[in-house]
Amino acid sequence: xxxxxxxxITPTTSTFELVSNTRTFQSPLTNAxxxxxxxxxxxxASLQFNNLSGDDRREMQAFLVKLNxxxxxxxxxxxxxxxxxxxxxxxxxxxxxxxGTSLVCDGATANVAGYLxxxxxxxxxxELHMVVQQADTDSSGNITIPIxxxxxxxxxxxxxxxxxIPVNGVFMLAGPASWDTQVNLTSSFTIEAVEDVxx
Length: 199
What we know:
Blueprint: E1 3-5, E2 13-19, E3 22-26, E4 33-37, E5 42-52, H1 54-67, E6 73-76, E7 89-93, E8 100-108, E9 121-124, E10 127-131, E11 143-151, E12 169-173, E13 178-181, E14 187-195
Parallel strand pairs: 1-6
Antiparallel strand pairs: 2-5, 3-4, 5-14, 6-12, 7-8, 8-11, 9-10, 10-11, 12-14, 13-14
């Protein structure tokens, strides 16, 4: 299995969604509902490319064929994303064995309010996470980042955290990828992809 970079072609439309791995249980006696959250939440993307022609058309065709169905993986970002936070510095994980919905980091620019803002993305360990609340740095460049979904694989100390544009996750095709071709040799592509939780 190889991980490729997605072609630098902007989709006509795209959908990004978090598929949470939560389950609800309703009591047959009291109708009370309980909800449990389990590991395995992932990102799902749907990309539509309309009327690609020339080099873009050929590059997208070759890329999809190269993936060989679900054999290979690719890095992908939310094409609608623009970072809101100020960022700065070299953000790395501060302390190994972290889990849950917050990530403690250091190496950031010190004393920055809004270093990362709600809706920004970060990625590490081939996982893509969204910042769910503003995170500020302290006087030493330390920061605790509230994220979703929860961390799947515990990062090691000093793992690099990518917060730049674009921020990538590792995805795989969710089904067959195909294209149609018009008489003027333009093609439209629909690509359904899911994050690889084992990447």
